[in-house]
Every structure is written in structure tokens, then in C-alpha cells.
């Protein structure tokens, strides 16, 4: 089935010095043994959104591994869903891959180009009795899949004769049936421990035009059918996927075997996806941020998309270095965003020339410097630890700009900058002393009167006195006014995306993620930079001259990253923790598994691992939650009963794992005075807004103590959320009035502040206010005062 490969060429030393990981070890062994003449990998994005930093890890792995070992990497678009895909995304993805300095050459593929071949193979499966047309609805099929402890129920159409299935499948292809009337399923095993093998769907009807195929098709293959066969068509040797596809591997291998794919067949290997703190990685949620106006688009510099990181000024080499730093592993983990920022600083330090810019200017007048005179100072572009040469002329005169924060009329202890009677050094210039602070009618300092020491030009003091502080500055007569955009993290919480049952990820939006400063003062030499240039503003951070919005008379700079390296601090803290004396860990609850969070499946047998993985896949849960829930039969039953009552698996899992086990205090789950439907009722009350998440914990404790059902406890204790407009309106008015700056920012278009205001009102009401009503009242209050 595989197409002939182009002349392979010898792989570059498969046992060479490249960094190793478990995937590279497998590939090197396969090359050394002669199983494959060269490695062929693929990067298979779905063109339904823009790529983000998580995709960069997969890009670097697939293309990087092929580069290292003398192979090739295909770029293949998995474009089998006509409802979500667009050529705009295809072009954006190609642009992102090229930006990371990878090239697929002539090896560009589209799964949609294989539709004819895939259809023919689907017919072949039917003829071999390995697939059948099922006329149940997809909801019925889901309902009959069974559970991790119970086998599925066979479809009444499972024994449909191949000729009949073949005729129906052809009529599906011809457009004779409506969406959902029939599906094509593989005939495997409805009692399989791996629920992915319980007669999975291969094709479904979808009357929708395809962005490349037009109206040629009204049935579309599922990803699990496309994936292994496309790999076989292209001669892929190693198909690298993230861990959520681990359960799919059995189906991947089954399809290749069922269709007699010649050896050596492609091998699927899974690795842990990238999870980054303070970041949301779901394309659906990123699309929400764009469509709801929380950000300026897919390329907003606060977004984790590659387009956003590029617009912000992250160098592609820093992204690749970051992917090398985090490596490839089998275990789920969350990488601190500080490590990404560290990689960016490390990349920019030797490449970004130093210049001076004052963001929040305060005027300094040197009263002892002759009026109308000036001079030019020679300022190096590079510090001593960067082995590069180059400098620029910096004008100096009687009037200067310094940062407003660099002056305090009443300095606190440890403040080493300018204050009345104090000296500081001006970077590359003189030592100055503040003699007087001039205030306006409102009492605000608007100007500093200072003197300078002419014997201190360029460094040092003739009398050896110590001057503790050094400030950056810009000549007022030569300064160029520029706009500076200061970006901070889009979310203020380390884990903004906590899944179903947790707070809405948008409630964690950081209202200060973007600050726009007008009238910043830039030294004149730096104003000659070309759009796209990256500079270090001394003492402030690394900045990019934006290519989209900058005009010759209006330069716009983006702050790429600050100079403060939080990752260095994090590393030091971890090293200190590692070297500290070990302390005895508290014993886990009786029903909780004792395993490392880094590897949720550690210590389990293959059968146990499969049970946990199937449970996780069946309910879309993290593996560590699935392991906890399946560690006790009564707990697993409680969960499944709860989900039957209220379909929110993640919310129910959070309540059981994080709250119930602690409330049990070592008692077995079987001793509880209620069944799982009571838990489902409790989570339903939370999701419906009747009670808050905090109140749900109180109710759960009362349920464990035998005080009745969730509804009874809520009613008896009066715990319902406040839904009275008249009661909440004054609270909303008071919160808005207390934060006039944020209210003005919202009215001027900073819509992300709405979530912040909701949080303030909830805090004021002890979490009892109904969030939907709060949202409505806030929109009314804020819109009423729109400027």
C-alpha cells in the first residue's frame, strides 16, 4: 500500500551525539537494525484553527527528528471535517511551520486527496466482513458502548450481510440518506477491554461542502480511519502522537492488519503533550477569546498561538530552544511558562542591541548645564558579557527625561534611585544630584531641578564616592515620541483551564494583560530601527518594533519579555527544595492511589493501565483522576451513577477526588449513606447556579454526615444563590463605583474586564450571588455609563 520512497540516502549517524529520548532511541534502533532505510515522519494538523505553542513541540519533534537522522517529514493536513476547515488555516499553518525554520519540500499532502482510496478500502473492509453499516443513531451507539466494567451491546445491524452493507454504503456515498441515518462501523469486539475497539465508527454522513473537494462527497471518514491508512500511503515509519491517542493505537494496528498492509508497517508512538502554566491550549477556547473580543485576533501578542508569539516578537529560534529544553517524555506534566520566557531572554541577550527609552517620562532640568548647549556621548550597544562590538551616539543636554518611578519625594528604605538631596548616575553619562522637585497645582511632581558633576562623565567619581543607583534617560531635545504596548500574561491564574465543573476559564482573564503607553521617549538612534527589529530597552526589557501598526511618524513597540528572569528564581527554589532534608509525607486517603503525579499509571500492570486509560477515554478525564476513581469499585460505581444522573464527568470527578475522599477521613466509599445519583444532584445544583462551588463543599460534608440529600440541605440551610435583582443591584453599583479606572477601560473596549468585575461581586457576596444575573447587571451598569 505504501508508495515508493524517493532515493533514501544514508541516515546521518543514527547513533550520533544528538540529544536522546525514548522516541529517538526507538528510531535509532530501527535504523540500525535495518528495519527502515530512513525515517519518515509527519506533522498532521487539522486546518480548523491556528497553531499554538503546544503544536510547536510536535513540529520540532517530527521535523527535528527527521533532520537529525537523515530522514524526511511530511506536512499532511487532516482535513476530513467540512464544517470547521478553511484554506485560511492551511496557509496560516504553512506560514507557522516555515517560521520555525522547517521545510517539507515537495512532501505536502492532504487527507482529502485520499478520499477515493479511503472509500475503496472501506468497501474492502465490508466485503471481508470487517465492517458493516449501522442504522442506529450515534446517540444509541454511544449508549450501547458499555462501561469499563460492562461489555457493550451489539447493534441489531451488526450481522447485516456484507452485500446489504455494501449497497447501503454506496447509497450513503450517492447522497440517498440524511445526516445521521447510517454510519459505517468496524466489526471488532463489543466486549473489548479497550472501548476504542468496540466497533468504532469509520464513516458518517455529512451533507456539507468541503473547502477543497466542494460537493463531491457527502460522507466523510473518521480520523481513526484516516490516520493509519494515510500513514501507510505515505510510507511513514514512525507516527508520533500525543498521549490522548494511546488507546487508539490498537485500532491503528488493527486497520493496517485488516487491510494486509505490507511490512514494515507504520508504528504509532505516543508522547506527552505540552501543558503550559497560565495558558489555555484548547483551540475551541482560543476561538472563543477571539470571537468574544477578549483579544484582538489569532495573532494578538497575548495569545499562545504561533502567530501571536511571532507578532509579540518571540524569535523562532527561542521556540525551538524551548522545545529542546522541555524534551520528550511519556508522563503528563505542566511546564512553567517561566521556562519559555527564560528561553526567549537567553536567545535575545546576545542578539538584541541595547538602547534607552523612557516609558513614563518625568522631566529633569540640569540647572548648572549651559542653556542651548549639548554634547554626544558614545554608548555601547552590548554589555561586557556579550562578545560583540558596536556603539551609537547618544545626545545629552540641559533637559532630560527619566522614568517617573525612578524618583520618590519620600524614598522608602532600600530605594537607590533619585530623591531630594540624593545622587544617581545617568547611564553612559554623568552623576546628577536632585536639588528641588517642582509640583503643579494638584501637588504632582512635574519637574526635577538637578545639578551634574562634570568630572563623572562616562563612569567613576574623582573622589571615589559611591553612587548606588544608575538610571536610563533620554535627551528631551532629541527624544522621539513612540507608543509602547506592555503585554503581561493573558490569565492571572496558573491553571485557568480546569475543565468541566471548574470555574469558567474566562473568569481568570488578567485585566492588566495589556497596557498601552503613549508619548514614551526613545533615543534618536533607536528610532532608525527597521520594523521587526528587536531591541533591549535598558532596565526595562526586550522590545519589538511592530511591523503591522508602525508608521514612519508613529512607531509602535511591543514588549516581548521583561528582564526579570522568573525561571532562574523557580530553579533556585526547586534546587533548595531538593537539597532540603526529606520530611515524612502524610498518608494518603484510603481510597486514593499512592502514585507519582508525574506518572499516573506508574506501578500498574498492563491490564490495570488499560482499565484506567479506558475509563479516562470514556469520560474524557485526566489519567490521574481516572486512576483514583478506578482504585475502588464502590468509588467507580458512585461516579458512574452520578454521571447517569447529571452529565458532567469532570465536575463529578473533581468533587469525588478533591473533596469526597478527604471528607471520608479514611472510611471506605461503600460506607456512604447515599448513592451516586445524590452526587449527580449536587453537581447539577452547582452547574445550574443554584449554589456556588464553595457552598457545594459545605453541602457535601453534610451529606457525608447523613443530613439528607443535597436539595434538602440547601433548602434547610438557606444556601441558594441570590437571584433577586433588587438585592444584587446595589452591590454591583458599589463595586463598579469603587473601581472607576477599570470601568472606564471596559467602556473604551477592554471587554475582558467584565470577568474581573464578576469576580469582585462574587467576593462581595461570599460567593452566593448568581453569576448569570451578576453578569447581566454588570453589563447594564457598565453600559449605562459608556463613554
Describe the structure.
This protein has 787 residues and is of the alpha/beta class. It contains 24 helices and 27 strands. The strands form seven sheets. It has a seven-stranded mixed β-sheet. Helix 14 packs across helix 15. The protein starts with 21 loop residues before the first helix and ends with a helix.
How many helical stretches? 24
Strand order of the largest sheet: 12-25-26-27-23-24-13
The rounded distance between the terminal residues' Cα atoms is 66 Å
- Most strands sheet: 7 strands, mixed
Helical fraction: 25-40%
Instruction: Give Rg in angstroms.
Output: 31 Å
Stretches where pLDDT is under 50 for at least 5 consecutive residues are: 1-19, 566-598
- Structural class determined from secondary elements: alpha/beta
Return the average pLDDT rounded to an integer. 87
Shape: globular
Quick overview of this protein structure:
With 787 residues, this protein is of the alpha/beta class. Residues 1-19 and 566-598 have low confidence and may be disordered.
SSE topology sketch:
Layout: H1 22-33, E1 40-43, H2 53-68, E2 72-77, H3 87-99, E3 108-110, H4 115-127, E4 131-134, H5 138-143, H6 162-174, E5 183-186, E6 201-205, E7 219-221, H7 223-234, E8 238-242, H8 249-258, E9 267-271, E10 275-276, H9 283-291, H10 306-312, H11 316-326, E11 334-335, H12 337-348, E12 354-355, E13 357-358, E14 361-366, E15 374-380, E16 391-397, E17 399-403, E18 423-426, E19 431-439, E20 445-453, E21 470-471, E22 474-475, E23 480-487, E24 514-522, E25 534-537, E26 541-545, E27 556-561, H13 566-579, H14 606-619, H15 623-630, H16 633-645, H17 649-664, H18 676-687, H19 693-704, H20 710-717, H21 725-738, H22 740-747, H23 753-764, H24 771-784
Parallel strand pairs: 1-2, 2-3, 8-9, 10-11, 12-25, 14-20, 18-21, 23-27
Antiparallel strand pairs: 4-5, 5-6, 6-7, 13-24, 14-17, 15-16, 17-22, 18-19, 19-20, 23-24, 25-26, 26-27
Helix pairs in contact: 2-11, 7-8, 11-12, 12-13, 14-15, 15-17, 16-17, 16-18, 17-19, 18-19, 21-23, 21-24, 23-24
Amino acid at each position: 500500500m505504501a508508495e515508493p520512497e524517493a532515493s533514501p540516502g544514508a541516515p546521518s549517524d543514527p547513533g550520533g551525539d544528538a540529544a536522546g529520548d525514548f522516541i529517538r532511541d526507538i528510531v535509532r534502533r530501527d535504523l540500525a537494525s535495518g528495519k527502515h532505510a530512513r525515517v519518515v515522519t509527519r506533522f498532521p494538523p487539522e486546518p480548523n484553527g491556528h497553531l499554538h505553542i503546544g503544536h510547536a513541540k510536535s513540529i520540532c519533534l517530527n521535523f527535528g527528528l527527521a533532520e537529525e537522522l537523515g530522514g524526511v517529514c511530511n506536512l499532511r493536513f487532516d482535513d476530513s471535517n467540512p464544517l470547521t476547515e478553511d484554506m485560511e488555516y492551511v496557509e496560516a499553518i504553512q506560514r507557522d511551520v516555515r517560521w520555525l525554520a522547517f521545510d517539507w519540500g515537495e512532501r505536502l499532502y492532504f487527507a482529502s486527496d485520499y478520499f477515493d482510496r479511503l472509500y475503496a478500502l472501506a468497501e474492502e473492509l465490508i466485503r471481508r466482513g470487517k465492517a458493516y453499516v449501522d442504522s442506529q443513531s450515534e446517540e444509541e451507539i454511544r449508549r450501547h458502548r458499555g462501561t469499563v466494567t460492562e461489555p457493550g451491546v451489539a447493534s441489531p445491524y451488526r450481522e447485516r450481510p456484507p452485500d446489504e452493507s455494501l449497497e447501503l454504503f454506496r447509497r450513503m456515498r450517492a447522497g440517498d440518506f440524511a445526516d445521521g441515518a447510517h454510519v459505517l462501523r468496524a466489526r471488532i469486539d463489543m466486549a473489548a477491554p479497550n472501548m476504542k475497539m468496540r466497533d468504532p465508527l469509520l464513516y458518517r454522513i455529512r451533507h456539507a461542502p468541503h473547502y477543497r473537494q466542494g460537493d463531491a462527497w457527502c460522507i466523510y471518514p473518521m480520523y481513526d480511519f484516516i490516520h493509519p491508512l494515510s500513514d501507510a500511503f505515505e510510507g511513514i515509519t514512525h507516527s508520533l502522537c500525543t498521549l490522548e491517542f494511546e488507546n487508539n493505537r490498537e485500532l491503528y494496528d488493527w486497520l493496517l492488519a485488516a487491510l494486509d498492509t505490507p511490512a514494515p508497517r507504520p508504528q504509532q508512538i505516543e508522547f506527552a503533550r505540552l501543558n503550559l502554566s497560565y495558558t489555555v491550549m484548547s483551540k475551541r477556547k482560543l476561538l472563543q477569546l477571539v470571537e468574544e473580543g477578549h483579544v484582538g485576533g489569532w495573532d494578538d501578542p497575548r495569545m499562545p498561538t504561533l502567530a501571536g508569539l511571532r507578532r509579540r516578537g518571540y524569535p523562532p529560534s527561542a521556540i525551538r530552544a524551548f522545545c529542546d529544553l522541555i524534551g520528550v517524555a511519556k508522563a503528563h506534566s505542566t511546564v512553567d511558562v517561566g521556562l519559555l520566557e527564560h528561553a526567549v531572554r537567553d536567545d535575545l541577550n546576545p542578539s538584541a542591541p541595547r538602547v534607552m527609552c523612557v516609558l513614563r517620562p518625568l522631566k529633569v532640568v540640569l540647572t548648572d548645564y549651559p542653556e542651548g548647549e549639548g554634547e554626544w556621548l558614545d554608548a555601547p550597544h552590548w554589555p561586557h558579557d556579550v562578545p560583540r562590538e558596536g556603539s551609537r551616539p547618544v545626545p545629552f543636554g540641559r533637559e532630560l527625561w527619566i522614568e517617573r518611578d525612578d524618583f520618590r519625594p519620600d524614598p522608602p528604605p532600600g530605594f537607590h534611585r533619585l530623591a531630594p538631596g540624593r545622587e544617581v548616575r545617568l547611564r553612559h553619562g554623568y552623576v546628577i544630584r536632585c536639588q528641588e522637585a517642582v509640583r503643579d497645582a494638584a501637588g504632582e511632581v512635574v519637574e526635577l531641578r538637578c545639578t551634574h558633576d562634570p568630572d563623572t562623565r562616562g563612569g567613576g567619581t574623582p573622589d571615589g564616592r559611591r553612587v548606588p543607583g544608575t538610571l536610563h534617560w533620554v535627551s528631551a531635545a532629541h527624544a522621539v515620541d513612540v507608543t509602547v504596548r506592555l503585554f503581561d500574561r493573558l490569565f492571572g491564574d496558573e491553571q485557568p483551564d480546569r475543565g468541566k465543573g471548574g470555574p469558567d476559564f474566562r473568569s481568570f482573564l488578567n485585566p492588566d494583560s495589556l497596557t498601552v503607553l503613549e508619548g514614551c521617549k526613545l533615543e534618536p538612534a533607536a528610532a532608525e530601527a527597521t520594523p521587526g527589529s528587536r531591541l533591549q530597552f535598558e532596565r526595562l526589557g526586550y522590545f519589538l518594533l511592530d511591523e503591522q501598526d508602525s508608521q514612519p511618524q508613529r512607531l509602535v513597540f511591543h514588549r516581548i519579555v521583561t528582564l526579570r528572569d522568573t525561571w532562574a528564581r523557580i530553579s533556585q527554589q526547586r534546587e533548595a527544595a531538593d537539597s532540603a532534608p526529606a520530611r515524612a509525607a502524610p498518608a494518603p486517603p484510603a481510597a486514593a492511589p499512592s502514585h507519582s503525579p508525574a506518572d499516573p499509571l506508574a506501578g500498574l500492570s498492563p491490564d490495570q493501565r488499560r482499565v484506567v486509560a479506558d475509563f479516562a477515554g470514556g469520560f474524557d478525564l485526566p489519567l490521574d483522576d481516572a486512576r483514583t476513581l478506578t482504585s475502588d469499585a464502590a468509588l467507580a460505581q458512585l461516579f458512574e451513577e452520578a454521571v447517569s444522573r447529571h452529565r458532567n464527568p469532570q465536575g463529578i470527578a473533581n468533587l469525588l477526588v478533591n473533596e469526597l475522599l478527604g471528607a471520608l477521613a479514611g472510611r471506605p466509599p461503600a460506607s456512604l449513606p447515599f448513592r451516586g445519583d445524590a452526587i449527580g444532584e449536587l453537581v447539577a445544583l452547582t452547574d445550574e447556579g443554584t449554589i456556588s462551588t464553595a457552598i457545594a463543599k459545605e453541602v457535601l460534608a453534610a451529606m457525608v454526615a447523613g443530613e439528607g440529600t443535597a436539595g434538602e440541605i440547601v433548602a434547610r440551610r438557606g444556601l441558594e444563590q441570590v437571584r433577586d435583582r433588587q438585592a444584587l443591584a446595589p452591590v454591583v453599583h458599589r463595586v463598579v463605583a469603587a473601581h472607576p479606572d477599570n470601568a472606564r477601560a471596559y467602556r473604551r473596549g477592554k471587554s475582558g474586564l467584565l470577568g474581573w468585575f464578576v469576580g469582585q461581586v462574587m467576593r462581595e457576596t461570599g460567593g452566593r450571588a448568581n453569576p448569570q444575573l451578576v453578569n447581566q447587571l454588570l453589563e447594564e451598569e457598565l453600559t449605562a455609563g459608556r463613554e
